[in-house]
Amino acid sequence: MYNLDGKIALVTGGSRGIGKAIAKRLASEGATIVINYMRNEEAANETKKEIEDAGGQATLSKFDVSDFDAVHESVDKIIENHQGLHILINNAGITKDTLLMRMKEEDWDNVMSINLKGIFNCTKAVTRNMLKQRGGRIVNLTSVVGEMGNAGQSNYAASKAGIIGFTKACAREMAPRGITVNAVSPGFIQTDITDQLTEELKKDYISRIPMDRFGTTKDIAGAVAFLTSDDASYITGEVFRVNGGIYT
Ligand code: NAP
C-alpha cells in the first residue's frame, strides 16, 4: 500500500477501461479522484459510485482533452475547488486503426489531437500549480505500439512515441521543482476491445507474449500507483513497461 492521503488526482479518461482501474486504485490508496470523461456519463457515474462504495472520494469533470481552452478552464476549477492538484494521470486515448494507404487526414488528426495534444494541454494546465507547490506526479499512458510499431496503427504509434519524447523533456524541465514525469507503457491489456477479438486472434496475440496472457487493467494501475507514491520520488523520465515481456 502507498499513502496518498490528502492528494488530489486527476485521471483523464478515468471513467472506463485502464483509467477506471487507475482511478479506483489511487482512491484505495487515499487520494481524492477527479474522474475526467468526454461522452459516457453513465460510465463516469458508475466509476464514481464504485469508488464511494469502497469508502473513497471522487468527483467528475467532463471535458475534451484536445480542447485547449476547455482543459484550462476545467483544471483551474478543479484546483480552486480542491485547493490544489498533486497527481495528473494522462490516460485518455483513442485509436483509429487502418493501413496508411487507407488512412484519412481526419484519422491522423483525431488521434494526434486527443492522444498527443491532449497530454500537452493537460500537463500545461497543471504545471503552474505544481511548480508553485514544489511537487507533483505526472504519469502518461503510452503503449508498446509506440515503442515497436504495429501495422495499421501508424497514427496511434506516432502519437504514443511522441508521448515518450514529451515525457522525457518535461521530466528534465520539472525535476528541479520536485515534479516527476514518467510514462507507463502497457502491452496488450484485456479490455472491451480485446474481448471482442475472435478466439483465433486472441490465441495468436497471446502466443507472442512470453507471459502467455493478456495483461489486466489492475497490472497497469499497480504500476501507476507506484509511480505516484513517495517510493518513486527519485524516478523521472522513465518509460515503465508493463507488457508481459513482449517488448524489452
Ligand atoms: P478505453 O477503454 O477506450 O477508455 C478511453 C477513456 O478515454 C474513456 O474514459 C473515454 O471517455 C476517454 N476519452 C476518450 N476521448 C476523450 C477525450 N477527447 N477527452 C476526454 N476523455 C476522453 O481506453 P483504454 O483501452 O482503457 O486505454 C486507456 C489508455 O491506455 C489509452 O491512452 C490507450 O492508448 C492506452 N493503452 C491501452 C492499451 C489496451 O490494450 N487497452 C494498451 C496500451 C496502451 P468517454 O467514454 O466518456 O468518451
Protein described:
By secondary structure, the chain is an alpha/beta fold. The protein is built from nine helices and seven strands. The chain has helices at residues 17-28, 41-53, 68-82, 105-133, 144-148, 154-174, 192-195, 199-207, 217-228, and strands at 8-11, 32-37, 57-62, 87-90, 136-141, 179-186, 239-242. A seven-stranded parallel beta sheet has the order 3-2-1-4-5-6-7, with helices on both faces. α3 (68-82) packs parallel to α4 (105-133). The longest helix is centred in the middle third of the chain and has 29 residues, at 105-133. The model has no long low-confidence stretch (mean pLDDT 97). The site of NADP nicotinamide-adenine-dinucleotide phosphate has 29 residues, from α1, β2 and α7.
